[in-house]
Each structure stands twice: as C-alpha cells, then as structure tokens.
Amino acid sequence: MAKPSEHAIEVENLTKRYGDLLAVNGISFTVRKGEVFAFLGPNGAGKTTTVEIIDTIRTPTSGKVRLLGMDVTKKKRAIVPRIGVLPQDFSSFDRITVRETMQYYSRLFSRASRLRRNADIDGLIELVNLKDKAAEQYKNLSGGLQQRLGIAIALVNDPEVVFLDEPTTGLDPRARREVWEVLLGLKKQGKTIFLTTHYMEEAEILADTVAIISKGMIIATGSPTELIENNTNYLVLTLQSVDANAVEIIRKMGFEPVHDNYQDLKVRVEHTEDILKTLNAIKDAGGSFLSLDVRRPNLEEVFLKLTGEALHAGPAEGEEVG
Amino acid sequence: MKLRVISANLVVKLKTFYRERTAMFFTIAFPIILILVFGTIFLDRDKLSLDLYVQDLDHTHASAQFVKALELNGNFKISEVDPASDAREYAKNHRLNLILVIPKDFENLLNQRVDLKAPNASVTLMYIYDPSSTSVKTKMEYLDMEFTGMNQRMSGKPPFYRWEETSILNRKYRFIEFFIPGVIAMAVMTASLFGTVNMNTELLQKGIIRKLSTTPITRTDWILSNILYQFTLALISTAAMLLVSYGVFHIDLKINVWLLVFILLDVFAFVGIGMILTRFVQEAQSAAAAANAITFPMMFLAGSFFPIEMMPGFLQTFARLLPLYYVNEGLRASMIFGDNMAALRYAAIIGIFAAVVFALGIMATRWEEGK
C-alpha cells in the first residue's frame, strides 16, 4: 500500500500560455499538509493563474499538478468537494442574505439534513464574525464583510485545502486585519491554506512558507525568516519627510537611498555605526527629517533585491479603498 | 444531474426575483397592463359604433325619420349640428372628421319620388369631411352602404344578388381573444431571453460563475435550474395574465396541455438564444441591446399583436421565419379553436427550433475557463 503523500499540493514544471503571453513559466513547488503557503508577487506575476489551475478553474498548458494526490486536470469531480476556494474579486448574489448565501453553498456540497447544515452554518458565521449581519443582503455589506463571507463560503464544506486568492486586496487596513484574524483562526485548526497576496506583511504574519513569484517564475522559496536571512545582510534605516539636501548627503556617503511607496526614504546599511554616521552627517549639513526607524529587512526588501522591482503595487497602507 | 443542487439554485433565483421589484414589474405587471390597455382600446371593435354628426337643414318629419333610421341600425351614434351654423366651420372648430348635411328640401323631394310625381327625383346628401383623418374613409364607406341599402329598399324590388356567410373557423372570436395568446408568447419570450442574458452576464462579470465552478454544481445543473426558473416565472406570469383576462374581459379561451407545451418550448427556444448571446456579447449592456434587437422585430412582425395578413407579402414571408410566429399561432390554434392537429404542427416546428438553439446554447455556455 502506497504511503500517503505529506504534500497537499505538488506542482511540477507548470506552464500556462494565453496566446503569445507566457503567464506561468515552468514553475515547480510543493505545499505540505497543514501549512499556510503564500504566493507573493506583484499584480500580473502569475499568482492567480497558478492558483486557478491548482483549484481546477483553469487548465494548464503543460506540466503536472497534483492536489490531495489527484491530477487536477482529470479528477475535478473528486477534488472539488475536498477544497474551498475564495476566488480573486469574490462576489455573490446581491439580494441574498448572508445566511441564505451560506445555506445555498452548503446545499451545493452537502447531503446532510437541514438541521445539521444550519448548525454548521451558524458556526461558520460566528467564525468570520458575521453573526450581526446574518440577515443582511450581500449588496449591503462593506468590502471587508463581503470578503469574510467569501471566506466562510470557502469553508462551508469543511475543506482539507483552502485557496484564498488575494483575500484582502481592496480592503482598508482595519478590514484587512479582521480578515487576518479569521485566517489565523483557520491556521490554528490545521487547515492547509494556499494564499496569494501582494502584501508582504500578510505573508509574513500568516505564512509558514512563502514563494516569491515574478514574471511567471518562482525566484525564491522558504519561510519568511529564511528568505530574509538568506537574502539580506543589512539593516534598513527609514527616514520620514526628508529634505532634498539630506538625500544628497546620504548619496555622497556612498549609500543608495530609495523612496518607498509611502515616500519615506529607505537606506540600507551594513553596520549599526553607519546609522550614526549618516544621522550626524545630515545634522552637520543642516538637513532635516521628521522621524526615523531602524529595523531588519522584511520580505519587501527581499523582493526588491531579488527582482529589482517594488512588490507593493496596490493601494498604500492607510489608504481607504472602496 | 443533482436535484438538490437544482432546487438550491431555483430557490436563490426565485428569492432574487421576488426581491427585485423591477424584474417583477416587467415579468408580471407589464404584460397585464398591455392586456388591459389594448383590451380596452379594442373592446368594441367587434361591435362597431361610429360617431356621426348630422346637420338637418330640412328639419321635417321625413328628415328626422331618416336620421333615426341611420341610428337604429346600430353602426352610428348620432349627434346633431345646429342648422344655423356653417357646417365647414363647425367641423373645423370642433375637430370633426365628418358632418352629414341633409339639404333643405329633403322631405319635398322624397314625397315627389314616393308619390311618383317625379319618379327620377333625388336628393343629394352632403359629406363635409376632413381628408387627413385616417378613420373618415371607413365612416363614409359605412354611410355609402347604408344609403345603397335604403335606395334598394325604396325601389320595391328584391335584390338579385344575395349572399350567405360560412366561417371556415369553428367559432368567431373577439380581438382580445386573438390578442392574449400573442401577449403570452411575447411575455414568455422577453422574460426568458432577457432573464437569461441579464443573469448570465451579471454572474459572469461578477465572477460568481467562476466561484460556482469550484463547487459540485455542473453546467448541466446550472442550465436546467435556469430553465426551471424561467418556466416557473412563465407559468406565474401566464396565470396572472389569464386571471385578469377572464376577470375583466370574460374571454372564452381554452386552457389545455398545449398551453404548457408552448410555454415550455417558448422558454427553451429563448433561453437557448440567450445562452448563445451571452457567449458572444459578454458586456451586460451590449447583451441587453442585442436581446432588444432580437425581441423587437419578433414582437411586431411575428403576429403577436395583429394578424400577419395585415402586412405586405414580403413581411409575411419574413414573419414565418420568426420562431415566435409559431408560438403565437400554436397558442391560438389550441386556445381559440381547440385545433389539436394545427397545434401539433406548430409545436413540432418550434420544438425543432428550440432543440437546435438550446443545444447550441449549452455548447456556448462557458463554465470552466478556457484552455
């Protein structure tokens, strides 16, 4: 008798073409059962195409994908009841309430009695903290609440593997954190979660393993800590509201300062003494800045280093998105 | 095919319909309004009564008798015009399309003719009319017929040419009874086509179809539940139309199994067309415009509101190419005349069309993303 695989997902040499466009370029990776696996990359990197091939929405051009030991191109019917999917830009029936939506999806999956199904639905509504909104129609929910409903729907069949395609894109910071709370709860339950995101903070907080994808190729894989340690040996000095004079001084000292998406200035330094030298030089030249922060690099820096492009292409932190 | 899944879909769609007031109005209330409006307009079409203004310049017993005779046959509702007024001006000022003027020596001339004092005596009745009026010709033709009859009776000889009428139809029917099967066919067509187009484009654009493709529901389940939903709406809408028609117009139409057959075939045909449309026109607004382009000619040329025999020859040929024509005629054959053979013939034609279009629709419906 064959030993069951420790992997929930096995991807081998996966390629997807749309005409002349090569969206996914021969990628291979595995996802262990019970782990949270994050696919991190900017918009258009190939994240959604990959996840939609694995969760059976799309078909690959070439390569092999096995989900729970089954070929996704041949065993869709057997796979679908065992997975839960929150597609990108999830939406639902406008005039159907939260509870009715849950009942609908539950009926699609389950032969269980209405009583049993309703008990499960109550539990899920509580899990995603939508109890107060259970009688509210979908169209009246805010973006964050809609995403939480989407997650609850993805869990309605108690899936072994959950696919969440950019679950927090378009949400304001508060709503994003509420979704993270739900996902951390799922992680505690031991669900295998495949997450795509372009928020590095999301990947760092939630993921056991992160695969960085750029232009259809995986360029690094590992835990967030491993990725940071293996790819960076410096500290990041962040200065807020820096004047042009100070930027020039930093350049003259041999550093390469860059502005991030929030217009803060980031300077990579190898030693703590470099920080002091830099600050003194700015002070001596009469330059100014509002505040400073020193920390170890994060996944965003790793991504910058590996690809030479900014990871965070979405709305800035703190920016309210509709 | 899973009944549990199909019924879950049906419930969601019916709840959405119930909560969508606009859809409710156009599916149920609008056809009823059409029936009430057209039914009222054409209520007296079978019992013609034309307004006729008469100016009696003679003002004698004979002229009064003549006016009374015109009124008695029931085709005219007579109003008098003051003999002192100028009939032309009166017609203009009161926007009348016809005034019949009885000349001053009407009685005198009539007596001369009857007493044979002057066997060739005749009286000239004057039509003061508005040639721009579309209905005045009909009114004048009716008057001509009346006067021909009166002349013939005055001659004292029986007519040589006589005639009898034998209808080729089992029964005579009223306009409203012709109209209602047409409205049923039209309402089911528009609800099925627009319902499918609107729902499919909306669910595709919102990504709901993509989400559903990751659940156990199959394309067949989805399409069957859509058919069941449209059929349910068609039954509700038809029942409402018939209830109002029986209640208000006391129609005499037969309700039999053919009604269900034609509604079902109507649904299949136009849901099929809707599925094909949404494959090629995926934007909601463009799809609705394309659906309009299909339903409009069908509504007016397929004989829903009036017989196609009223149209020029080439349009009649065109009408016979339209699927709705066969639903209209099939419903009339069964509901008005109880003609099962004719209903079967029309059902076979629309049935073949529906089967082909529906099969194409199934092939055109995207469920999973393309290769």
In short:
The complex is a heterodimer of chains A (322) and B (371). With 322 residues, chain A is α/β, with parallel strands linked by helices.
List the topology elements:
The complex is a heterodimer of chains A (322) and B (371).
Chain A: E1 7-18, E2 21-32, E3 36-40, H1 47-54, E4 62-67, E5 70-71, H2 76-79, E6 83-86, H3 98-109, H4 114-127, H5 143-154, E7 161-165, H6 173-188, E8 192-197, H7 200-206, E9 209-214, E10 217-222, H8 224-231, E11 235-240, H9 244-252, E12 258-259, E13 265-269, H10 272-284, E14 291-295, H11 299-307
Parallel strand pairs in A: 3-8, 3-9, 6-7, 7-8
Antiparallel strand pairs in A: 1-2, 1-4, 4-5, 9-10, 11-13, 11-14, 12-13
Chain B: H1 3-19, H2 21-41, E1 50-56, H3 61-72, E2 76-80, H4 87-93, E3 98-102, H5 106-114, E4 126-129, H6 136-155, H7 175-205, H8 208-212, H9 219-249, H10 257-280, H11 284-301, H12 313-319, H13 323-335, H14 340-364
Parallel strand pairs in B: 1-2, 1-3
Antiparallel strand pairs in B: 3-4
Number of strands of chain A: 14
The CATH first-level class of the largest domain in chain A comes to Alpha Beta
Please state the average pLDDT score of chain A: 85
**Residue-averaged pLDDT of chain B:** 88
- Helical amount of chain B: 55-70%
Q: Which series of helices and strands of chain B comes N to C?
A: HHEHEHEHEHHHHHHHHH
The oligomeric state of the chains shown is: heterodimer
Q: Strand fraction band of chain A?
A: 25-35%
- Estimate percent helicity of chain A: 25-40%
Overall shape of chain B: it is: elongated
Strand order of the largest sheet of chain A: 6-7-8-3-9-10
Profile the largest sheet of chain A: 6 strands, mixed
Provide the CATH superfamily of the largest domain in chain A: P-loop containing nucleotide triphosphate hydrolases
Tally of individual domains of chain A: 2
Number of helices of chain A: 11
